[in-house]
Amino acid sequence: RGGRADREVPFAQPGSLTKVFAIASGKGGVGKSTVTVNLALAMVKRGLKVGIVDADIYGHSIPDMLGVGDIRPTQVEDMIMPVPIKGLKVISIGMLKPRKDQVVAWRGPMLDRALVQMLSDVYWGDLDALLLDLPPGTGDMAISLGQHLPNAEIVVVTTPQPAAADVAERAGTMASMMHQRVAGVIENMSYLQVPGGERMEIFGSGGAAKVAETLSGRFGYDVPMLGQIPLDQKLREGGDAGDPIVESDPDSESAKILQGVADQLS
Ligand code: ADP
């Protein structure tokens, strides 16, 4: 596909009405993609027009989580059409590869090109919100994002563990080095609700609160803790089945918490 390096990134233009959120984490497996799809669907429930850019080069799992794992985007003239699913418009870095199962060993410039392509060569139309699922950590993609979308706000996802929180904090600091604002911190896998009311803190506690407090102190503005999502079998099953919990079980505790986070952001 011919990328058009000369085309401007629409969401970075002054006066753009699209709120851009990049979902970041220090390490993989903390639930970043799960949070991204559910927040996006929660915003759709509020009537917003929402797009997702799955920029997680190592674990592009957004299409699978939405049940469109093998769909390829169509192309009209030199524009790529985002895949419409559950009221969302979705593009994944996996869709830019010739084959879905191909392993990507792209270096910085290729990643940069892929990001620009997903932003500028995709026919997004009017969006109220665009959510980007970033790769974990503070690598090339985070730098490219900072360069092309300095107006993106960063949402940090972490588990409660101190080790996870420390690396999550670095992801937040990276954002501020790129002059991006950190919108808040989400704690995932916070506790397991056992029948009878007790909450078991399988992964410890306090990780997100610590990240939020440290970043607030460092940046001089309030970085809120946006919510604590429990360890939840149904949340996991919804992701595996391509039917995220915000849609499949909107009255569940997890879905309500995710909806609450989405409402704070939008
Ligand atoms: P990341 O994007 O950070 O790598 P994923 O969103 O892919 O993480 O989640 C990793 C795995 O953990 C997935 O199988 C997902 O379904 C599961 N998972 C995420 N959040 C939860 C949760 N709160 N409770 C149970 N399983 C979860």
TrEMBL record:
Query: To which protein family does this belong?
Result: In the N-terminal section; belongs to the MIP18 family. In the C-terminal section; belongs to the Mrp/NBP35 ATP-binding proteins family.
Give a GO molecular function annotation for the protein: metal ion binding
Q: What is this protein called?
A: Iron-sulfur cluster carrier protein
Q: Which GO terms describe its biological process?
A: iron-sulfur cluster assembly
| Known role | Binds and transfers iron-sulfur (Fe-S) clusters to target apoproteins. Can hydrolyze ATP.
Q: Which UniProt keywords apply?
A: ATP-binding, Hydrolase, Iron, Iron-sulfur, Metal-binding, Nucleotide-binding
Q: Which residues bind ATP?
A: G26, K27, G28, G29, V30, G31, K32, S33
Q: What is annotated about its quaternary structure and interactions?
A: Homodimer.
User: Could you tell me the superkingdom of the organism this chain comes from?
Assistant: Bacteria
